[in-house]
């Protein structure tokens, strides 16, 4: 009865087009008012607790901020240059380089559609010029772009960690190998297709040029080293690492790359300037740029954009915690788990059900909303069936990747349609063969937990636990 | 309908506090059938330690057992229990708490609308760290995680250590990665939170006490019939005694389990070394004597006899 | 004019909170490693700023359409039905706000009555938590404004933020760069030379 009320109100509100955060909150409050004696004051207390007692959650706004600074066109271009210089000379090289560029961009951005937009805009046109079919190019990018949420840092993983209290740093480590693997699978598939379709290769630019483009790309890529390095090197907790990442992202984009902000267009070294003079001038200009950033419209826009995304996510999370609170006190996941155990459904069977549920949900909703609604229900059941919480998390993330490519709500489809100027049907057809690869990959991830668990467990072992 | 008592706590059901709460629910079910029903919500299912007292004042929780440090904003006097080296062992703590002054302190929350019903033991605190600790100089400049408490902050500052406030949920990671050098806790917490796996040295310092207070709201408590209230208090006293016995046994067992695990070396303190700590930390007593009350400190010290 | 000023203040306030939280946590790391010390009030202040950020931000999010929702189904309906369900949804949102405003008022009054302070800062707790009431009042204001816009046909829904659309901004920026770069084939390697 309680369960029915909770879910009917939730879905009615959601499909009426209410903000998901409020649909979650209203269904929880209504259920509490109808079926328990809790006062509205204590529900407000619970909401305040959800917004003010979860230090770990702060990693979310911090990573969103760092990603906002680094998800710029300039960073994307540098990563693409490096990717083309390193694998472009293989047959089908431009397509493989695009996948590599997506993987690299994924490593600085927590978002998949941003990855498609940033990399796709440049490389799809480039591939078409080099003689690739446009549908091939678009399909590759739409799929490789989904890696944005699998390769750490990932906002979706942080949301999962928040919903289940699983360690965010272990989730990040767990996403690493699957992310590389999916990228590898895509590249192998491209290589095979390239041999059949006789796709071209780029000339190798030489080791010197490769080294140069690597150094240039490194500024952005250092972010992932800072994040994973500071968590595992004993400098900071995930929340602190995220704050460090945000400060670093500001420094690289505003003072280093100078794509945005008060130093835009200022050269590191002017024509005929001595090295000592250049160093002194740059230092002074950088110092002066710090206070100037406060008023600079571009810097302010980046921060405001990050604020909008952060407050939206944190407000959903706060309401989702209320929802999870109702679930636990009414013992709803517990009852579902008992029913499942009663049916004798084994862990592998449960995982099939999980995948189907998530794939359906992925058609209509965005990843963080799905996770916040489904994780509190699925998590306790999975624990009862002996499924590793990290493994479950990676399965959910890979499902979310697929959801970005399925209509009617598929963020990567929308972006791909936008940058190619084609209609949705064309984009869906272009993505289909690659989507099958992704589904195969989901099977691998679901039934070989070691792919996800190897790295976090290996690191624990290294440290002797 | 029977009167409903929601007992909210933040630990697992199999811990001493969890078992105490379950025992209380069972005794009440036996003795006040149809009159009072106790529902236990473990593992922060209802509220965390920082919000449970507020929820109690709103009338949504009837009983809870937060650590004594959690009351520092409700009353100054309970900070007494955070003072370092005040009690020499748990027997002294027990003597003080069950004595007249200890019982009187249960009423210190009345002006804020709360009633203390009894003390529940966790145990004496030990120091764990990534380096061996024997004398105060060993912790100089080292970073220690503390619960939010002005006394505990002063205690570490007195030996030139750096107290850091960090949420309990992040402590393990911070210790594991050596971002923080050490922490203070009871044997049972060090064992159950697996701190001994990431802290190679534990010094048996017994430098302080970590106890809980079972509280209820005055509004709720005074609304009960006299006979029901008396019966509840009796059942609670029995449950607390039961929980304390388990806690004492568990402290012993967990200490032994840590020694047996060989993950962590347990260091004993000689009386001379202990004297150095007392000298270094005793100024903290004076610092808080005004807020807590010198008479309370004297009474507590007397319980060591 | 006034509307513009309010928007600027709101944006500055939220940006300031986000930046302050980031810098405070960053400063803690620097203090711990650079100076072997901590900031004893940092954690409490950071978490409090997070609460203000979210509870105030929720209403700003309604104003600028930063929230997300599922509007694929209502968009399939004929426009009259679409408007009806949107208005119904706004009424339900107002009920949500009303319930929380009422609960928050009681909660805050109780905290004011017992008069305790924050753990690490000498600030009355009810004052630090007053954003609960203020935030929901603002949320009601924003939903009423949105409702009025739907009635006067200025708006047809919640205008949910669209991550796809935002990513397209990035694409446009890049397309702009690309066309500018065309005449200068070496432009991609600007940094390479420096
Ligand atoms: Na990422
Ligand atoms: Na989808």
UniProtKB/TrEMBL annotation, chain A:
Keywords: Cell inner membrane, Cell membrane, Membrane, Transmembrane, Transmembrane helix, Transport
Endpoints of the signal sequence: none
Location(s), subcellular: Cell inner membrane
InterPro entries given in the database record: DctM, TRAP_DctM
Domain TRAP C4-dicarboxylate transport system permease DctM subunit: 7-451
Known function: Part of the tripartite ATP-independent periplasmic (TRAP) transport system.
Name of this protein: TRAP transporter large permease subunit
Taxonomic classification: Bacteria, Pseudomonadati, Pseudomonadota, Gammaproteobacteria, Oceanospirillales
UniProtKB/TrEMBL annotation, chain C:
Membrane topology category: Multi-pass membrane protein
Record flagged with keyword Transmembrane: yes
This protein's record includes keyword Cell inner membrane: yes
Domain Tripartite ATP-independent periplasmic transporters DctQ component positions: 21-148
Main location: membrane
Location in or out of the cell: Cell inner membrane
Residue ranges of the TM segments: 12-35, 47-73, 85-106, 126-144
InterPro entries according to UniProt: DctQ, TRAP_DctQ
Pfam family, one: DctQ
Residues covered by region (Disordered): 171-194
Basic and acidic residues bias locations: 178-194
Subunit structure: The complex comprises the extracytoplasmic solute receptor protein and the two transmembrane proteins.
UniProt function note: Part of the tripartite ATP-independent periplasmic (TRAP) transport system.
Name of the molecule in the record: TRAP transporter small permease protein
Natural source organism: Amphritea pacifica
């Amino acid at each position: 009865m309680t369960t029915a009320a909770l879910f009917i109100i939730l879905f009615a509100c959601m499909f009426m087009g209410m903000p998901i955060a409020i649909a979650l909150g209203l269904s929880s409050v209504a259920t509490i008012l109808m079926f328990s004696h809790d006062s509205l004051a204590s529900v407000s207390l619970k909401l305040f607790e959800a917004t003010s007692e979860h230090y770990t959650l702060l990693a979310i706004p911090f990573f969103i901020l760092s990603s906002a600074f680094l998800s710029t066109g300039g960073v994307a271009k540098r990563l693409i240059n490096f990717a083309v210089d390193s694998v472009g000379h293989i047959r089908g090289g431009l397509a493989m380089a695009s996948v590599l560029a997506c993987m690299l961009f994924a490593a600085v951005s927590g978002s998949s559609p941003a990855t498609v937009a940033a990399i796709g805009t440049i490389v799809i046109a480039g591939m078409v010029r080099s003689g690739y079919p446009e549908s091939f190019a678009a399909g590759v990018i739409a799929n490789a772009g989904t890696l944005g949420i699998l390769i750490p840092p990932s906002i979706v993983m942080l949301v999962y960690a928040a919903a289940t209290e699983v360690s965010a740093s272990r989730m990040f480590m767990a996403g690493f190998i699957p992310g590389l693997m999916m990228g590898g699978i895509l590249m192998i598939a491209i290589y095979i297709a390239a041999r059949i379709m006789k796709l071209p290769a780029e000339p190798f630019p030489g080791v010197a040029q490769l080294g140069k483009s690597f150094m240039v790309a490194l500024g952005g890529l250092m972010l992932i080293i800072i994040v994973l390095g500071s968590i595992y090197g004993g400098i900071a907790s995930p929340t602190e690492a995220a704050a460090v990442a945000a400060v670093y992202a500001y420094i690289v984009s505003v003072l280093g790359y100078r794509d945005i902000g008060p130093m835009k267009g200022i050269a590191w070294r002017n024509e005929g300037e001595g090295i000592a003079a250049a160093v002194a001038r740059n230092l002074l200009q950088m110092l002066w740029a710090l206070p100037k950033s406060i008023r600079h419209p571009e810097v302010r826009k980046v921060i405001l954009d990050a604020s909008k995304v952060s407050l939206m996510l944190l407000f959903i999370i706060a309401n989702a915690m209320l929802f999870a609170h109702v679930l636990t006190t009414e013992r709803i996941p517990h009852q579902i788990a008992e029913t499942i155990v009663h049916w004798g459904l084994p862990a592998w069977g449960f995982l099939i059900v999980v995948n189907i549920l998530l794939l359906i949900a992925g058609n209509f909703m965005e990843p963080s909303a799905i996770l916040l609604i489904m994780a509190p229900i699925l998590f306790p059941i999975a624990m009862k069936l002996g499924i590793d919480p990290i493994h479950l998390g990676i399965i959910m993330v890979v499902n979310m990747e697929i959801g970005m490519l399925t209509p009617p709500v598929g963020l990567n489809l929308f972006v791909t349609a936008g940058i190619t100027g084609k209609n949705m049907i064309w984009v869906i057809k272009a993505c289909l063969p690659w989507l099958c690869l992704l589904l195969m990959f989901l099977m691998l991830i679901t039934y070989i937990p070691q792919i996800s668990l190897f790295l976090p467990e290996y690191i624990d072992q290294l440290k002797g636990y | 309908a029977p009167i409903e008592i929601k007992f909210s706590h933040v630990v697992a059901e199999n811990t001493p506090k969890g078992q105490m709460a379950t025992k209380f629910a069972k005794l009440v079910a036996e003795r006040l059938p149809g009159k009072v029903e106790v529902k236990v919500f473990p593992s922060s299912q209802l509220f965390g330690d920082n919000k449970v007292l507020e929820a109690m004042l709103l009338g949504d929780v009837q009983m809870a057992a937060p650590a004594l440090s959690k009351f520092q904003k409700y009353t100054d006097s309970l900070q007494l229990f955070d003072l370092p080296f005040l009690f020499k062992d748990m027997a002294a703590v027990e003597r003080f708490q069950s004595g007249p002054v200890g019982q009187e302190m249960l009423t210190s929350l009345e002006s804020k609308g709360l009633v203390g019903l009894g003390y529940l033991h966790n145990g004496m605190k030990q120091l764990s760290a990534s380096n061996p600790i024997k004398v105060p100089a060993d912790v100089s400049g080292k970073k220690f995680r503390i619960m939010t408490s002005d006394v505990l902050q002063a205690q570490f500052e007195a030996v030139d250590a750096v107290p850091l406030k960090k949420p309990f949920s992040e402590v393990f990671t911070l210790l594991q990665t050596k971002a923080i050098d050490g922490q203070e806790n009871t044997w049972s917490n060090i064992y159950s939170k697996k701190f001994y796996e990431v802290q190679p040295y534990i010094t048996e310092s017994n430098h302080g006490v970590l106890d809980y207070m079972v509280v209820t709201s005055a509004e709720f408590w005074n609304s009960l019939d006299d006979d029901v209230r008396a019966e509840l208090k009796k059942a609670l006293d029995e449950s607390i005694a039961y929980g304390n016995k388990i806690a004492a046994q568990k402290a012993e067992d967990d200490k032994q389990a840590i020694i047996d695990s060989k993950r962590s070396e347990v260091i004993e303190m000689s009386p001379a070394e202990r004297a150095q700590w007392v000298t270094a930390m005793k100024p903290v007593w004076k610092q808080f004597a005004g807020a807590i009350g010198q008479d309370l400190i004297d009474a507590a010290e007397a319980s060591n006899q | 004019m006034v509307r513009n000023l309010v928007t600027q203040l709101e944006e500055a306030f939220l940006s300031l909170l986000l930046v302050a939280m980031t810098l405070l946590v960053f400063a803690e790391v620097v203090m711990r490693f650079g100076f072997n010390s901590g900031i004893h009030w940092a954690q409490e202040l950071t978490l409090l700023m997070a609460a203000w950020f979210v509870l105030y931000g929720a209403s700003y999010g309604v104003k600028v359409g930063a929230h997300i929702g599922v509007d694929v189904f209502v968009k399939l309906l004929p426009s009259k039905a679409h408007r009806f369900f949107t208005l119904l949804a706004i009424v339900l949102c107002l009920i949500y706000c009303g319930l929380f405003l009422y609960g928050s008022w009681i909660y805050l009054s109780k905290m004011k009555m017992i008069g305790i302070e924050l753990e690490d800062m000498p600030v009355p707790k009810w004052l630090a938590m007053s954003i609960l009431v203020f935030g929901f009042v603002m949320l009601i204001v924003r939903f009423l404004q949105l409702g009025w816009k739907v009635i006067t046909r200025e708006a047809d829904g919640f205008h949910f933020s669209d991550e796809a659309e935002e990513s397209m901004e990035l694409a446009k920026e890049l397309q702009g760069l690309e066309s500018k770069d065309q005449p200068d084939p070496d432009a991609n390697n600007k940094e390479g030379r420096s």
